[in-house]
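Raw record, unedited: tRNA(Ile)-lysidine synthase
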Amino acid sequence: MLVACSGGADSMALASALAFEAPRLSVRAGAVTVDHGLQDGSALRAAEVVARLGAMRLDPVEAVAVTVGSATRAAHSAPTAGTGGRPAGGGPEAAARDARYAALDAAAERHGAAAVLLGHTRDDQAETVLLGLARGSGTRSLSGMAAVTGATGRYRRPFLQLDRQTARKACLVQSIPVWDDPHNADPAYTRSRLRHEGLPALEKALGKGVVEALARTAQLSRDDADALDGWAADAEQGVRDEAGQLECAKLYALPPAVRRRVLRRAAIAAGSPAGSLFARHIEEVDRLITGWRGQGAINLPGRVEARRQGGRLVIRQG
């Protein structure tokens, strides 16, 4: 198993826990730290993290440098509030995350790791739920992060039920040095503002327990979303004709939550990227079923087009 470690309190506490448990479970345990190169001295910090992880007797331990891109680099070095509170000039947080996961995937393959452990805590989960709520993307967005993700279940989050303060206290008790990423306190970033302003304001107004309640909401939403996704997968074949085309009348008869999932599945199957397909896109396609007034085709991400023709919904790449 590998632990992904930034040097922050959450991932250092996780690395320490893995180092403690691995011999007892007869598990080979190592660690990877990813240097995004977005700050001066990042290579030196990565080397320091490697040394600390090695002192825990984790093996193998390595630092992997990734290239995020010049536009992202500029946005991180001089962030300016843009649309939705994200730094102007693109999505540096998303670009850095994509580069990080690509590096972790490669490290897992290189070392033959069965799993990669991530240090996300209950506080991270609460933040993710609130961000999903702000986007208005439905139940799946409110379900936050799963404990196990990845095509083969590679990524595991064992600290999702643990609060951030406990992880930090674990490092303090063990005298483990930690590094606090300044980006996590930068108000130019939406998650940072939510962490330092939004959640404290909610706790002040509603009392303690907000984080726990949001994390519980994530699990309940995930259970609901999984059930609805399964229903949609079963319903999809029943709303297609012999030629495989979606029949509008049968789609109309489905509950809205199931119908929209069927439409989303069909759009993705036609070539629309899942990460770019938002609730508003599916709502427009849904209106071809529920609010048909002779409107034209709906353009979806990935050059996919949805059009109503002769009582059928045709979704295909242009």
